[in-house]
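Researcher: Re-running this chain for the archive, since the previous output was lost when a drive failed. Same request as before.
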Amino acid sequence: MTKKIKLLLKEKGISQTELAENVGVSQAMISYIVKGFKAPSVTLLKRISDYLGVTMDELVQ
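Model: Regenerated structure tokens:
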């Protein structure tokens, strides 16, 4: 999942800060998720997938 989030952010030109602001968490939380230090809740995973325009299944593959 971490690689997929990194790839989608890069492809869409979205910064971790922008993602964080739009899903309602801190940039630090997004950084922890992207680095694999924290796993997002199902609710946060849904908000991230919605913002990135993919399904939750696509995000976790």
